[in-house]
Design brief:
Blueprint lengths: L21 E5 L6 H9 L5 H7 L15 E5 L2
Antiparallel strand pairs: 1-2
Helix pairs in contact: 1-2
Length: 75
Amino acid sequence: NAMGIEEVRADEVIAPPETETVEYYEVQKGDSLWKIASNAYGDGNRHPDIFEANKEIIQNPDLIFPGQMLRIPQD
């Protein structure tokens, strides 16, 4: 058999972990991560959750710009 695999058992298959549910939000003029977190979660203190989910888009959490599409992770 290929690569030394002797047997494949379907009863030992492990399903991949469920993916996290994510919503998206387009930044509007006057927004901040605190304001977005307050609206999305009811708690502005969760703004680091949004920053962490968007590090490839946001280099500085104090600088977000209208038109940016941000992922808003859902619990």
